Structures are given as structure tokens and as C-alpha cells.
């Protein structure tokens, strides 16, 4: 029975297969992009209008469990000093 390190050194490594699938020549890619940008511009306008209609929640309206925890005086002092002397 051969030791493991010798057996691994003898095995032939597998051919590397990249995970990226390339699209091909840039000429074809540039033609597709010009058509795509014209369509996306009209679509983004309608999406931004829909987003503006939705209301957002401010920090004051959040429940207490989602609000920020106030800083302690020790933490404020550590921030003012640059944070080097404070141990959490």
C-alpha cells in the first residue's frame, strides 16, 4: 500500500474549466446593449413612478426593537478618542 502523499503526487490533475461563460465577440454584444438600453429607459421611468407612490417608514415610526441602541458614555468617549483604548 502506497502512502497518501505519493499517490496524490502521481495522479493527473483535472483540466481547469472556468465558471465564467463568455458571450463571444464584442461586436454582437454592443449591438444588443444599444437595443436593451432603449427598452430599460422606458421601463425604469414607470418603475420609479411606482416606487414614488409607495410610502416609506422613518426611524421615528419604527418599533422599539428596530430602533438604534443609544450609546453609553464610555462608548462616546471611546469614539471621541479614536477607539484605540476601548475594549468591548
UniProtKB/TrEMBL annotation:
Mitochondrion recorded as keyword: yes
Keyword Mitochondrion found: yes
Principal location: mitochondrion
Keywords associated with the record: Mitochondrion
GO biological process terms, semicolon-separated: 2-oxoglutarate metabolic process
Cellular location(s): Mitochondrion
Coiled-coil stretches noted in the UniProt entry, renumbered to this chain: none
A cellular-component GO term for this protein: mitochondrion
Family as reported in the entry's similarity comment: Belongs to the alpha-ketoglutarate dehydrogenase component 4 family.
Protein's name in the database: Ribosomal protein S36, mitochondrial
